[in-house]
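Batch job 17 of 40 flagged for manual review because the log was empty.
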Amino acid sequence: MESAMKTQIVLVPGPWMGAWCWETVSQRLRELGHDALAVTLPGLASAREDVSHVGLECHVEAVMAVLDERDLRDVVLVGHSYSGLVVGQVADRMPDRVAHTVYVEGFLPHDGKSLLHAFPERLRESELRQIADNEGRWPAPDASVVGDGQGLTARQAHALARRFVGHPGRTVADPVKLARPLADQRATYVVCSMEHVDGQIAADVTAMRMAPSWDFETLHTGHWPMISAPGPLAGLLAGIADRTPDRTPDRAADRTPDRTPDRTPDRPIGRPADRAAVPEVAGERRRTHEGA
């Protein structure tokens, strides 16, 4: 019990957001007995920041510096959306400090590939033009896109969109650097069901269901669960943290991964590319979390 109380959960926001987006989740985690630390990545504290020097490596090094400077170990490292690329690389480089990686509707890192490689070529070119026309920042979606079918109230969607700042554009165009196979990480992928249609998720995410040290969880909410379902998300993360000290790849292999069908996003806030159907497996354990 004592070890669970000491588990450090580090929360890395997705694009356009800062540590503020994790405030409610952080509070709930502390109430559940876990230390929670949310970070703001370089270039995202203010729209006035110069982001010409901010690339993907800058974000990776910033999170690594947090773990180093605070001497954090046995960390549960959580990344949302874009920040899947960040936390995945940090876990790859600091296996002595990161005990478990959590991808919340996250892009998965692949060596030599950028976030924009997950987009169809025509959409990729459009996003690059928008970055060039927006002083090097990836423009944030407006409230109508943020709230469309994502489990947010209109008020939540408008409040969230108002706080967005343009995301440093180089970070989504720079290639990932991984030294080890992603499947070797001890990780959990959190699928948010409202973000998907037709029972499909990205093919690279589906492939990780076969990795023995990966688990899958489903939240019945949209792309922004830290806003739309902070309680269920915090409970899910606390459960992962509680299990982390005793987790090993061999023991994880004894558990059948969850394959609850999910739905594919239809906007470029999530995973628009290359999808594979999620198979239904009879008799499988299902682990889902209500979003209300």
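Reviewer: the log was empty due to a logging misconfiguration, but the result itself is present. Residues 2-290 form a domain with the Rossmann fold fold (CATH 3.40.50.1820). Unflagging and moving on to job 18.
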